[in-house]
Write a structure and sequence with these properties.
Layout lengths: L2 H27 L4 E5 L10 E2 L23 E7 L7 H14 E12 L1 H10 L2 H12 L9 H9 L10 H10 L3 E6 L17 H4 L3 E7 L2
């Protein structure tokens, strides 16, 4: 571990109890139903409870542990490019806890790299793949071959530490957790007005290789 990472890890360990307590206070002082943004990083959504496990997280929520939200107190759960950073066992706890926290009719929306689309681009080696390679080079990545599309997303971005997802995998795991109506959505689009326009990444750069999935608690 690099010194900078070790320092951040140490800060996170020290701040964790305070940030977890701060989340509980927010829950007590805020009227339900809550909208919960998990793994928010530096993105803060107005009107949402923005949580993370990073070293700078103001509100600490480990999605793989028991959630402090009362059952049926959350209307929406949103995770933008976070579920690929956790292993399948943690993801299953996450889905179960989100399901329990949501109200009947509540929705979860997850954004993650689309393995199916990336493999398609890699296999076809067409103009879309070439565009993404050029775009990667413009953003400072070493990108010379079609296979680099896979390396950049899953290796360079650290996603190899978590679970790879395509629509079928997310659909099956969400269904197993109790969710219904699992659908694939376009980037930034939703039948639910609350979940529209939340994605922060450039549509042209990310949409073709992004999987957006929503599901409902019956």
């Amino acid at each position: 571990m690099m010194l900078k990472d070790a320092v951040k890890s140490g800060i996170a360990t020290v701040r964790r109890p305070v940030a977890a307590l701060r989340l509980r206070r927010v829950i007590r002082r805020t009227a339900a139903p809550y909208k919960v943004n998990v793994g928010c990083g530096g993105t803060r959504l107005a009107g949402w409870i923005n949580t993370d496990v990073g070293w700078r997280a103001p509100l600490w929520l480990d999605v793989g542990q028991r959630w402090p939200f009362p059952p049926g107190s959350v209307s929406h759960v949103y995770g933008d490019n976070m579920v690929e950073h956790i292993r399948i066992g943690v993801a299953r706890v996450f889905f179960r806890e989100a399901f329990q926290a949501l109200v009947a009719g509540g929705r979860i929306r997850l954004i993650t790299p689309d393995v199916g689309m990336l493999v398609k681009l890699y296999s076809e080696e067409g103009e879309e793949a070439r565009w993404h390679l050029r775009n990667a080079r413009e953003h400072g990545y070493e990108a010379n071959h079609a296979v680099d599309l896979l390396r950049i997303v899953f290796q360079d971005a650290g996603h190899y530490l978590g679970q790879l997802w395509d629509f079928a995998a997310l659909r099956d795991e969400l269904t197993a957790a109790g969710f219904a109506g699992v659908v694939r959505c376009r980037n930034g689009e939703s039948e639910d007005a609350v979940l529209r326009g939340l994605e922060q990444r450039a549509v042209r750069e990310e949409s073709p290789i992004t999987l957006a999935v929503e599901a409902v608690k019956p």
